[in-house]
Amino acid sequence: MSTPTIELLCHHRSIRAYTPEPVSDEQIELILTAAQAVSSSNFLQCTSIIRVTDTELRSKLAVLAGNQPYVTQAPEFWVFCADLNRHKQLVPQVELGKAEQLLVGCVDTAIMAQNAVVAAESLGLGCVYIGGIRGQIEQVTTLLNLPKYVLPLFGVCIGHPAQHPDIKPRLPKAAMFFENHYQPIQKSLIDEYNTTMANYYQQRSSNQKVSGWSDTIEKILNSVKRDTMLDYLHQQGWINK
């Protein structure tokens, strides 16, 4: 038996067009309250959110994120950051730079962002994640005045939807949900899913294309270079140990 919460989660789609109607202060407060209610590793609460309201700054971030116009069009644009700088300020002698601390910061921040997105969608709003801010992460760091031990992971656009895109079919559960041990792929499952995705791409209301799912893997993984990321992380104080 389904529930309203499950129905909401299963109807998620990325929204990239918004009406001019602003997100109200009450809605922002509710979204933030829901975001802060998440679990946090050892209750470190190592996430900070930067709400970008300056139009010039927003425009620069849109360009750095890959010329994504909805970064400027959306009523709200928030940048979610893993943040251990706050802890360093409070306890200067704390030892930072460990790989596990990076993982903790990323996990905490991703969980918080997803709570925020679900809360926003429950209020009738739409969202899209903007991982493109990592494409020019050094410039983003400078624009947002991010100190050492703060890592901008992604942005989130929030607003009233001006579009209703189709829901993308997900991988078959048997291809990603295993019991006791990891399992190699079942080619028949992936072949079936590729057919499903090819039909979806051809029939959706916009941006039709001819491909399956696995056809896109090489192009996507090879095109996202960001070869300076490790150096950047070191400069920001992450994974030095």
Concise account of the structure shown:
This protein is an alpha+beta fold and about 240 residues long. It has ten helices and four strands, in the order ααβααβααβαβααα. The chain has a domain at about 10-165 and about 230-235: 3-Layer(aba) Sandwich (NADH Oxidase).
Summarize the structure in words:
It is a single chain. The protein has helices at residues 4-10, 25-36, 55-64, 70-73, 85-90, 99-122, 137-143, 187-203, 217-223, 229-235, and strands at residues 47-51, 76-83, 126-130, 150-159. The chain is an alpha+beta fold and 241 residues long. The chain has a domain at 10-167 and 231-235: NADH Oxidase (3-Layer(aba) Sandwich). It has a four-stranded antiparallel β-sheet with strand order 1-2-4-3, with helices on both faces. It is globular.
Overview features:
241 residues, alpha+beta, NADH Oxidase, four-stranded antiparallel beta sheet, 10 helices, 4 strands, 42% helix, globular
SSE topology:
Layout: H1 4-10, H2 25-36, E1 47-51, H3 55-64, H4 70-73, E2 76-83, H5 85-90, H6 99-122, E3 126-130, H7 137-143, E4 150-159, H8 187-203, H9 217-223, H10 229-235
Antiparallel strand pairs: 1-2, 2-4, 3-4
Helix pairs in contact: 2-6, 3-7
